[in-house]
Amino acid sequence: MKTNIIKLKRSKTPIRELVTKFGGNPVWKGRPQWPIATRTGARMQFIAQIALDPLGFEGAMAYLFMEDDNGAGDTWVPDGGANALIIQPSDAPLSVNTKQLTDGTPLYEAMPVPKGNVREKQVFHYAVALHEEEDQELELGDKGYWNKIGGIPNWMQGDETPADGEWLLLLQLDSTGVPFEINFGDAGVGYAFISADGKRGKFLWQCA
């Protein structure tokens, strides 16, 4: 099976096209659907938007959000109200409420300040290039969890592929292998899935 390995490159300018990217604000294909955290009522943190062409859904987009560290939700649980994977276009019901907003909580990276050892958070945009490779299913304890689109999930713990229907791996994201701050617990890995009909999305993460 083939997979698409993610190569990240920091962009000097905001990315405002319907392409795969991390950071900044989403570029919505349809009307904005910013998810609201169930427990706090706050806007979730935007992580990434993903073009679904590599999975065969030409022109469709997925938007990944998660409650930030100020929230109280269980962000590792799919459909738990603390994360969301929004698919556009889609008429499938969502597990969270949304608002028609275009600006919200950004994802940050830690950047050194010229003077001293103080570090400050800065908003960023990362462009994505994909490199197709043969996928492999890593055993528990193997090193080198990949950041990838499509292919086989490399589970840190047991298999947690959603059980309600047929699902495809959309995104695998290793929190230790990205240049930005994202909380998947202790060196965790996030897994985003899309239903076989391209209408629904789910997200979860596992850690050591």
Could you explain the architecture of this structure?
- It contains no helices and 14 strands.
- By secondary structure, it is an all-beta fold.
- It has a ten-stranded antiparallel sheet with strand order 6-5-4-2-10-1-11-12-13-14, with no helix packed on it. A two-stranded antiparallel sheet has the order 3-7. Strands 8-9 form a two-stranded antiparallel sheet.
- The protein starts with a strand and ends with a strand.
- The mean pLDDT is 89.
Sum this structure up briefly.
This protein has 208 residues and is an all-beta fold. The protein contains no helices and 14 strands.
What labels describe this entry?
ten-stranded antiparallel sheet, mainly beta, 208 residues, 0% helix, two-stranded antiparallel ribbon, globular, Hypothetical protein YwqG fold, single chain
Topology of this structure?
Blueprint: E1 2-10, E2 21-23, E3 34-36, E4 45-51, E5 61-66, E6 83-88, E7 97-99, E8 108-112, E9 119-123, E10 125-134, E11 148-149, E12 167-174, E13 189-195, E14 201-206
Antiparallel strand pairs: 1-10, 1-11, 2-4, 2-10, 3-7, 4-5, 5-6, 8-9, 11-12, 12-13, 13-14
Number of strands: 14
Q: At the fourth CATH level, what is the homologous superfamily?
A: YwqG-like
Note the beta-strand portion.
35-45%
Q: What's the helix count?
A: 0
Q: How far apart, in Å, are the first and last alpha carbons?
A: 26 Å
Q: List SSEs in N-to-C order.
A: EEEEEEEEEEEEEE
Mean pLDDT: 89
Low-confidence sequence ranges:
none
Largest sheet: 10 strands, antiparallel
